[in-house]
Design brief:
Layout lengths: L5 H4 L14 E2 L11 H9 L2 H5 L4 H12 L6 E4 L1 H13 L5 E6 L3 H9 L3 E6 L8 H7 L4 E7 L11 H10 L4 E5 L3 H4 L13 E6 L12 E5 L1 H10 L7 H12 L1 H24 L3 E3 L5 E5 L4 H10 L2 E2 L1 E2 L9 E5 L3 H17 L23
Parallel strand pairs: 1-11, 3-4, 3-5, 5-6, 6-7
Antiparallel strand pairs: 2-8, 7-8, 9-10, 10-13, 12-13
Helix pairs in contact: 2-11, 4-11, 5-6
Amino acid sequence: MLKARQSVRTLKEYHPPLGKREGLRLDFNENTAGCSPRVLERLRRLNGEDLARYPVRDVGEKVVAEHLRVRPDELLLTNGTDEGIHLVSETFLEPGDESLIVVPTFAMFEIYAAATGSRVISIPAGEDFAFPTERVLSTISERTRFIAIANPNNPTGTFAPISDLVRIAQAAPDAAVLVDEAYFHFSGETAAPKWRELPNLFVSRTFSKVYGLAGLRIGVLMGDRELMAMLRRASSPYNLNSVALACLPEALSDEVYVNTYVAETTAGRRELEAELENWGVRFWPSRANFVLMYLGEQSQPFLHAMRQRRILVRDRSADYGCKDCVRVTVGIREHNQRLMTALREVFAELGLRPGAANPAVAGEPGRRQVAR
């Protein structure tokens, strides 16, 4: 009887809680306003002949390379960030190799690495979810071949200093060090193009967040051009569809739209953090377009009450160290105002008082043990 590989049979499954998502979507860190009007106009101009042709990826790569100020042979357009992670794992990992991730973090790091037969070692984040640089360095071994780091991190919003990422790449020259910068626009700091001094360093970005193109599935993976040539061998030449490639230049050219969205989101994040502080709710300062908060026993009532108001937020209790934590996406001013109104109403219903100590929602989330 045909069987899947052992590493696949024992693989964790990722089940996105999609289903019916009716209301204000503050649960998936998407752009709450949608994409640029220029993208929509480009979509309207597509015709049957455009869709009948195979997509030409290198034209889009030249546009993206110019925008990011790197060479075209230093990047590869991917089907979302997920494909970039998958390609790095498939290109550099053998069964029995070791992969390092810091938890909690993006679930697909572990899934794609483990699917190759690699042994995934989970390193717990430090106090207040701080990036544990020294522990990562001490865990690197001669078998380490992949280190994945989300920066800013999801779901915590925390940020690892670029200098620490450089130290890790220097300490593990035989490992592919992937820095996932999905939320780069909200932090303003990047590890690119440090691969010119550290060839084992890769940087990934997505067009799903600030550009509002999650439905088109576009990402970009950057790195040393010789190693990027190896990744191209493992990639399909038609991994991006023609619609995505047609819309990408329009999304990149509308800098006013992007800058306005980032400014409103950043302001909304500060407003949300200030509001949580006023209510005595524990949260972690974020460098992304979301905030993670701890609500203790009130987390499930909070989620239910927000859904009743047609506002979707994300329960992160299943993540390591995040029991009873809720992640809330921030977006444009209009949506943030609606969020703040609902937040105040729900907190009051739950018995919290602004400007007062609320011990039930100011404690420490539980940390589960992680198998090493």
